[in-house]
Automatic annotation (TrEMBL):
Protein name: 7-carboxy-7-deazaguanine synthase
Record keyword Protein transport present: no
Biological role stated in the UniProt entry: Catalyzes the complex heterocyclic radical-mediated conversion of 6-carboxy-5,6,7,8-tetrahydropterin (CPH4) to 7-carboxy-7-deazaguanine (CDG), a step common to the biosynthetic pathways of all 7-deazapurine-containing compounds.
InterPro entries referenced in this protein's UniProt entry, alphabetically: 7-CO-7-deazaguanine_synth-like, Aldolase_TIM, rSAM, rSAM_sf
Co-factor remark: Binds 1 S-adenosyl-L-methionine per subunit. Binds 1 [4Fe-4S] cluster. The cluster is coordinated with 3 cysteines and an exchangeable S-adenosyl-L-methionine.
Keywords carried by this UniProt record: 4Fe-4S, Iron, Iron-sulfur, Lyase, Magnesium, Metal-binding, Queuosine biosynthesis, S-adenosyl-L-methionine
The protein's Enzyme Commission number: 4.3.99.3
Reaction(s) catalysed (UniProt annotation): 6-carboxy-5,6,7,8-tetrahydropterin + H(+) = 7-carboxy-7-carbaguanine + NH4(+)
Pathway in which this enzyme or protein is active: Purine metabolism; 7-cyano-7-deazaguanine biosynthesis
Residues holding substrate: 25-27, 40, 84, 210
Organism superkingdom: Bacteria
Species assigned in the record: Mesonia maritima
Entry-linked HAMAP family: QueE
Length: 210
C-alpha cells in the first residue's frame, strides 16, 4: 500500500498507529482491579515531563495497523476495552469505537482531553495537563477526573479542573510515581480535608503487571 493511501486511512481512523495491546488488570481510578484489554495508540504532543510512556509520543515509530484487526484481537480477550496512549484523541476514534460497539464491548478512554472528542464511550477518564488544557466537551462528558500530583502546586490546578467538570464526575488525585513517597502523605492529608476527592494509586505497578 502506498504511503499516501496509508496516511488517508489513518486520517479516517481506519488504520491507527498501534504501539501495544495487552490484557491486564486496570490499575488506576474507578475501575482499578478489574480485567480489561488495553489498546495503546501512538502519538502525543502534550509532552508531560514525567510521562512514563514517552516512547508513545512519536506516532511514526508505531506501525499503522488496520483498525478492524485491532478490534477483532481485543474482543477475543475481554468485553471491556481501554483505549489509551499517547493521546488517543489525536486520531479520529469513530471507526474503532463503532466497531467495538458492534462487538458489544464496553469502551473506556484515558485522555488528556486536549483534542476534539470523537467516538462512542462508556467511560471517559479525563487526566488534564497544564500544557494543553481539555476541550469544553470533554469536561462536560467526563466520568472521572484524574489529576496527577507532582508537587504541592498541583492541588490548585486540581481544584481549577474540578470546577469545570460535570457534577457527577468522580474526582481523583494520583501521585506521580517517581515522587510518590513524598507526595502520598500530602494527598492523604488533602483528601481528608477535602473529602470530595478520592485517592488513586497506580496499583498495577505495585502488582508488577503492565
Amino acid at each position: 500500500m502506498k504511503k499516501e493511501q496509508i496516511e488517508k486511512l489513518v486520517e479516517e481512523g481506519k488504520m491507527l498507529p498501534l504501539m501495544e495491546e495487552f490484557y491486564t488488570i486496570q490499575g488506576e481510578g474507578f475501575h482499578k482491579g478489574t480485567a480489561a484489554y488495553f489498546i495503546r495508540i501512538g502519538g502525543c504532543d502534550v509532552g508531560c515531563h514525567w510521562c512514563d510512556v514517552k516512547e508513545s509520543w512519536d506516532a511514526d515509530k508505531h506501525p499503522p495497523t488496520v483498525t478492524e484487526k485491532i478490534v477483532d484481537n481485543a474482543v477475543k480477550y475481554s468485553d471491556t476495552v481501554v483505549i489509551t496512549g499517547g493521546e488517543p484523541l489525536t486520531w479520529d476514534m469513530t471507526e474503532i469505537t463503532t466497531r467495538l460497539k458492534e462487538k458489544n464491548a464496553k469502551i473506556h478512554i484515558e485522555t488528556s482531553g486536549a483534542y476534539k472528542l470523537t467516538g462512542i464511550w462508556d467511560w471517559i477518564c479525563l487526566s488534564p495537563k497544564k500544557i494543553k488544557l481539555p476541550q469544553p466537551e470533554v469536561y462536560e462528558k467526563a466520568n472521572e477526573l484524574k489529576v496527577i500530583i507532582f508537587n504541592k502546586h498541583d492541588f490548585k490546578f486540581a481544584e481549577e479542573q474540578a470546577a469545570k467538570v460535570n457534577k457527577d464526575c468522580i474526582l481523583y488525585l494520583q501521585p506521580e510515581w517517581s515522587v510518590r513517597e513524598k507526595i502520598i502523605p500530602l494527598i492523604v492529608d488533602y483528601v481528608m480535608q477535602n473529602p470530595k476527592w478520592k485517592v488513586s494509586l497506580q496499583t498495577h505497578k505495585y502488582l508488577n503487571i503492565p
